[in-house]
Amino acid sequence: MSVTADEQQRLYNFQKNTQNIKKSAVLDIEKERKYLKIDFRYFKKKLKEAYKTDDTKEVEKNIQALLKLLAKKLALNIKEKQEIYDEVPDIIIEDEVANYTQECLQLLAIQKKILEIYGR
Question: Which residue segment(s) compose the domain that 76 sits in?
Answer without folding.
Answer: 36-117
